[in-house]
């Protein structure tokens, strides 16, 4: 399976990443990506940029090194009510919103609390994808959350970094269960390198292998073509991106 979109990447603006957007785009071109989503951490994460950083992404060219650039964010799920740390005004200026649990922002609690938070963030309509759900520190009712995600057209991320074994240790078995159950339910999947250094841009081999293990239909993998990814954004209610007309 070919993956042509990386939907989860960071620049040095995140505070604990080490490459610029230009370096990431150059790496994306070398590795054959067609679209790169830049998704720096939202303001509540320690070291993350001010909200003006996200509001000003409109100045980023739509193509860098012949790679389409999606203006995004990795927001933080803040509480069981499903609040995220992106101002509603900012949302209107972004193409792509992932939200994730991060220990410095949402202290690990009970499975019931994590499930409630995820269900509420999905139902809020404010997020396009749920990031690195395999983290065992944030166990949740997989069937309930993925069923809700399907109903609301929220993508489930298979995070390659989680599958490497050194980030969010213990995620591999959880990611496997998420892929298996997600196949049964029929969710949309997305794939993210979660790169914090340009060499890891488009490093999606483990995520692709997990999706292939469960023979997940490419129609459900939104990163398997530019058309599928951009049409998913339309499904989410986003406006067409005029500059990407040839990619639809």
Outline the secondary-structure elements.
Layout: E1 5-6, H1 21-30, E2 35-38, H2 51-55, E3 63-64, E4 67-76, H3 88-91, E5 96-100, H4 111-123, E6 129-130, H5 142-151, E7 155-159, H6 160-163, H7 171-185, E8 189-192, H8 205-213, H9 226-235
Parallel strand pairs: 1-2, 2-4, 4-5, 5-6, 6-7, 7-8
Antiparallel strand pairs: 3-4
Helix pairs in contact: 4-5, 5-7
Binding site for Zn(2+) 2: 16, 41, 196
Organism: Vibrio renipiscarius
Keywords: Hydrolase, Metal-binding, Zinc
Instruction: Sketch the major β-sheet.
Output: 8 strands, mixed
Q: How many H/I helices?
A: 9
CATH class: Alpha Beta
Return the domain count.
1
Helix content: 25-40%
Rough shape? globular
CATH structural architecture: Alpha-Beta Barrel
Q: N- to C-terminal separation? A: 19 Å
Number of strands: 8
Radius of gyration: 16 Å
Overall pLDDT level: 97
Cofactor: Zn(2+)
Keywords: Hydrolase, Metal-binding, Zinc
Pfam family, one: PHP
Protein name: Hydrolase
């Amino acid at each position: 399976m070919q993956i042509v979109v990386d939907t989860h990447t960071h620049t040095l603006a995140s505070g604990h990443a080490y490459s610029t957007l230009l370096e990431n785009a150059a790496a994306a071109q070398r590795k054959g990506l067609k679209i790169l989503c830049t998704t720096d951490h939202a303001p509540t994460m320690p070291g993350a940029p001010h909200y003006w950083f996200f509001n000003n992404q409109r100045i980023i060219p739509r193509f860098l090194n012949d790679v389409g650039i999606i203006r995004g964010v990795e927001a933080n799920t803040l509480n069981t009510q499903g609040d995220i740390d992106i101002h509603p005004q900012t949302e209107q200026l972004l193409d792509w919103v992932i939200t994730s649990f991060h220990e410095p922002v949402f202290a690990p609690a009970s499975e019931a609390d994590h499930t409630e938070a995820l269900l509420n963030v999905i139902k809020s309509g404010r997020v396009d994808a749920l990031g690195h759900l395999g983290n065992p520190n944030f166990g949740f009712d997989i069937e309930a959350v993925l069923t809700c995600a399907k109903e609301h057209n929220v993508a489930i991320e298979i995070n390659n970094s989680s599958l490497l074994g050194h980030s969010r240790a213990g995620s591999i078995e959880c990611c496997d269960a998420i892929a298996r159950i997600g196949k049964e339910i029929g969710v949309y999947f997305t794939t993210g390198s979660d790169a914090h250094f340009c060499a890891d841009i488009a490093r999606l081999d483990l995520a692709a292998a997990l999706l292939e293990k469960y023979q997940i239909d490419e129609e459900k993998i939104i990163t398997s073509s530019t058309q599928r990814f951009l049409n998913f954004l339309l499904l989410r209610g986003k406006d067409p991106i005029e500059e990407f007309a040839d990619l639809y």
